[in-house]
Amino acid sequence: MERVINLQRITVLTADVIASRSAQQAVGALSTAVTEIVHTDLVVPFTLSRGDEIQGVLRGWLTAPEIIRILRWRCRPLDLRIGIGLGTFIGELGNNPWALTGTAFFRAREALDRLNGQRRPGTTLVSGGPGEYDELVNAHMHLIDTIQGAWTDGQWQAVMSYEAVGTYAAAGRELGVAAQNVQKRCKAARWPEIRQAEQALGAAGRLLMTILG
Questions:
Q1: Mean pLDDT of all residues in the chain?
Q2: CATH of the domain at 62
Q3: 104, part of any domain
């Protein structure tokens, strides 16, 4: 009987908290905040380790980049450096990302190490694939990080609420503000452009999987 090999394409996100020692109270609440993140592409839940490092596993090759924004939102007011690694995994993934190993995990760590010493939020990817893909993704990530780094609390709330409920009116009711205010905050946050960039990154990931078979 031929053995069936369960080979999965995965994306690993490994993050650390910037200036975690000066924000111990906020760091203490991280474990619950990150484990509550739910997404259809999140196959191993985000888990905290060493007090200030977060790791999770997604199916596919960065086909749902919005998870990066969701992770940043759930960790606020803390800022994160995030490394992304792509690769394959054979076997069952389980529920503890820190118990797993493989190329995607090594690449995520390599990506995170490239951000060592950076005192502002940043995101870097190491795919192990074509260098042009890494350049494209990392350029998009840098632009997204630059724009999001200037978001106010109100803009974060408006963007995340609007995305969740689908209309400015519903988001306004949820936030207790006028629909026009939600719209203004989303516009000031460059939300349409951010979402377009995320969708382009997801499409690039799907294309990479097609090209590499």
A1: 92
A2: 3.30.70.270
A3: yes
pLDDT over threshold 50, residue 29: yes
Distance (Å, rounded) from C-alpha 11 to C-alpha 43? Answer: 10
Q: How far is 102 from 50, CA to CA, in rounded Å? A: 20
Angle at 33 between CA 105 and CA 142, to 5 degrees: 55
Q: Which tokens is 57 given? A: 């596993």
Domains held by the chain: number: 1
* Domain encompassing residue 50: 7-130
The sign of the torsion formed by the CA atoms of 34, 38, 41, 43 equals positive
- 42-52 pLDDT, tens per residue? 999 999 988 78
Q: For the chain, state the CA radius of gyration.
A: 18
- CA atoms lying within 13 Å on the CB side of residue 57: 25
Q: Give the number of other CB atoms < 10 A from CB of residue 90.
A: 9
SS3 sequence of 167-200:
CHHHHHHHHCCCHHHHHHHHHHCCHHHHHHHHHH
Q: Pairing between strand 7-17 and 80-90?
A: antiparallel
